[in-house]
Amino acid sequence: MPHSDSDASPGFLSQFSNSEDLGEHFSPTPPGYIKGRTRFVVVIGTVMSGLGKGIFASSLAKLLQDKGLSVAPVKLEGYLNIDSGTLNPYRHGEVFVLDDGLETDMDLGTYERILGQNLSRSNFMTAGQIYTEILECERRGGYLGRDVQMIPHVTGVVKMKLRELAMKGPSGKQVDVVFVEVGGTAGDYENGFYIEALRELAFEEGDGSTCFVALTYIIEPAILGEQKSKAAQLGMKRLMEAGIQPHIIACRAKNPVTPKVAQKISMFSNVPMKRVFSMHDRESIYVIPDAMRTEGLDREILSILQLHDRVDNVAEDGARKVWSTFASRLSGPRDHNITLGISGKYAALRDAYASIDKAVEHCAVDLSATVDIRWLDTSDFDTAEHASHALDGVDAIIVPGGFGMRGVEGKIHCVELARTQRIPFLGICLGFQMAVIEYARNVLGWSDANSTEFNSKTKYPVISELPDQKRLEGIMGGTMRLGAQDVAITPNSLASFLCGGSKLVRERFRHRYEVDPAFIDRLEAAGLIFSGRHPKQPIMQVLELPLTSHPYFIGAQFHPELTSRPLAPQALFMGLLAAAIAQKEPAFAQTAAGRRWVRSASTANSHSA
Ligand code: GLN
After folding, report:
1. Could you tell me if 40 and 305 are in contact, meaning their C-beta atoms sit under 8 angstroms apart?
2. Could you give the CA distance from residue 434 to residue 415 in angstroms, rounded to a whole number?
3. Which one from 251, 414, 429, 499 is the annotated catalytic residue?
């Protein structure tokens, strides 16, 4: 899928050819759309951001999904960027890439993981996308002499897009519930038009169609030692000034919200006590769905939206059991203990590697292992000795993705250490490229081997930008290779073992540089194996070392962390942790998990064709 949004469809505005359609009640609906059929749950934050609105909204969506209802989440971002591709992970957390190539906010990762569902560009809206669409239509003369206004035109586009999403239900049916998360907090300038659009939507869809949930925050100043509701009350007022009466109030707080505070909130915002919920801090986000259910949040939403007749109780029992097993294993005791070193420029900020953190968590639960993560800033690793000191005692190493020069040499030292000391290793994207460079330098002796991203003059540009190749793939010159692609897996390889013998897997990419095909033969002759490739082009997508030289050394040009799910942990991470456990506890290889995930002379070919 192309990166640039200008390649997307010209937008629905092009279909309006007479000014009647663009009148005061400009509120187009997609063909076939049945008003009131799809219900909308809207989550709006008050008081402040950073309350875990995405986690809250996705857990809420999960509750209804568990009941057999089809759900579609959407995040409405107020910023003017078209997507999150250019955002600094320091400021905004990681860039999460969807299957269709859209670069989004890390919250979309939360939705995918909690719902176990692939999302697409229709699940993510930014003010930049909406204004672009409107301004392009205006330049084409699409508004036929009318002045283009926030209301009805901008709000009209927002409503239309929400209804278009509602049309994307299973087998062509309308989705049961669209979950709308409004970025920022009520009262922000930049999300005002979204809130207005949602007010209009609720009116147009009719009574019982929309449930507004206000996520607020109860402060508990240390000097007072008690909870205060004033900030929450003021926040609620802001929402009500915008014409929105919340149906449910969820109070984020450090400790359970006291009845006195809940009563105040209830009274000042016309919301009955039974619909004011305490969403205090929990030990893990995965217990939130169950906690919500225990408090009856799902029951209230079903009543507000009159959805009881769509509930499948049997499906719910099954889904709850699976999830609770995962949640209880998460908080229960673990059998193994390993230390994982993760090197990266943004080591100071965990959000920048949120999906890696999560993928490790999914696998750790599955393998009953406690994983202590040691985040390493490689920018001061000048030598292999430096790296060796920092990595002392780690049982496995991940070199993750990244852009830019800083810390690159340090990462290469980490790869060297992992390779020569036989420490289980997973290189991701840039980490994969670092593994190729390390091999070229230290095994083939090409001491100045590099990526042209870091040294355009190198004699051995083993990693370089290959615009011709991208053109063949239909990717626009100069932009990144983004989104999911098929990867053909070589039989009898470690990759094939991990993927259970699959010959083709689908993984998500976000990179510009790749292995230069001119060097592939020489790298392979020296022992490096490229075990995952583009099905048609000479694009190397997985590398590994044979079992005879290393217990677990694998690299992926794609981002395996983006497809890991709590209930379906990703194979390359599973293999990494399993190999690390097996090195510490050889008996582990004989367990069921060990036989599935630890490659040995006897299991190596067990899945191959
Ligand atoms: N900077 C490298 C590239 O563009 C790696 C990108 C990444 O790790 N996501 O190819």
Report:
1. no
2. 7
3. 429
Of 581 and 48, the structure prediction assigns the larger pLDDT to: 581
Lowest-confidence pick of 458-472, 493-507, 518-532:
458-472
Beta bridge partners of 434: none
**Burial class, 442, CB count within 10 angstroms (exposed 0-12 / middle 13-18 / buried 19+):** middle
Report which DSSP code applies to 498.
Answer: H
Q: Which tokens go with 385?
A: 């000795």
* CA 106 to ligand 1 centroid distance, Å: 18
Ligand 1 within 6 A of 402 CB? yes
- Phi, psi angles (nearest 5°) of residue 279: -115, 65
Give all strands (DSSP E) within 34-111, no chain letters.
Answer: 39-45, 71-77, 96-97, 103-104
Average pLDDT value for residue range 161-172: 93
Q: How confident is the model at residue 171 (pLDDT cuts 50, 70, 90)?
A: confident
Question: Among the listed ranges 189-203, 309-323, 346-360, 507-521, which one has the minimum average pLDDT value?
Answer: 346-360
Q: Any idea what DSSP says for residue 552?
A: S
Measured in angstroms, how far is the CA atom of residue 404 from the centroid of ligand 1? Answer: 8
Instruction: Report the pLDDT averaged over residues 563-586.
Output: 97
Angle of helix 155-166 relative to helix 127-139, nearest 10 degrees, comes to: 110
Are 347 and 377 spatial neighbours (Cβ–Cβ below 8 Å)? yes
Give φ, ψ of 534 to 5 degrees.
-60, 140
The question of whether 361 is a catalytic residue gets the answer: no
DSSP one-letter string for 250-299: EEEESSPPPHHHHHHHHHHHT--GGGEEEEE--S-GGGHHHHHHHHTHHH
- Tell me the Cα Rg of the chain: 26
Task: Report yes or no: 518 and 534 within 8 Å, Cβ to Cβ.
Answer: no
Which pLDDT score, from 0 to 100, does residue 471 have?
A: 66
Tell the residue number behind the tokens 């907090």, with chain if given.
Answer: 185
Give the distance (Å) from ligand 1 centre to CA of residue 559: 10
Please state, in angstroms and rounded to a whole number, the distance separating the CA atoms of residues 314 and 452. 56
CB of 98 closer than 8 Å to CB of 161: no
Q: What is the arithmetic mean of pLDDT over 284-298?
A: 90
> In angstroms, what CA-CA distances link 212 with 43, 74, 167?
6, 15, 21
| Cα–chain center distance at 48 | 22
Q: Is 407 in the pocket of ligand 1 (CB under 6 A)?
A: no
Q: Ligand 1 pocket: which of 353, 399, 429, 540 to mutate (most atoms <8 Å of CB)?
A: 429
User: Of these residues, 3, 247, 511, 559, which one is catalytic?
Assistant: 559
Query: Does the structure show a pLDDT above 70 at 604?
Result: no
C-alpha 322/C-alpha 8 separation (Å) is 38
Strand partners, 428: 556
Output the CA 403–ligand 1 centroid distance in Å. Answer: 5
d(CA 65, CA 500): 29
Give the position, in ligand 1's atom list, of the atom nearest the Cα of 513: 10
Has residue 143 got a pLDDT over 60?
yes
Q: What confidence category does residue 95 fall into, taking pLDDT thresholds of 50, 70 and 90?
A: very high
In whole angstroms, give the CA distance from residue 148 to residue 146.
6
Q: Quick check: CB of 453 below 6 Å from ligand 1?
A: yes
* pLDDT surpassing 50 at residue 17: no
pTM of this structure: 0.91
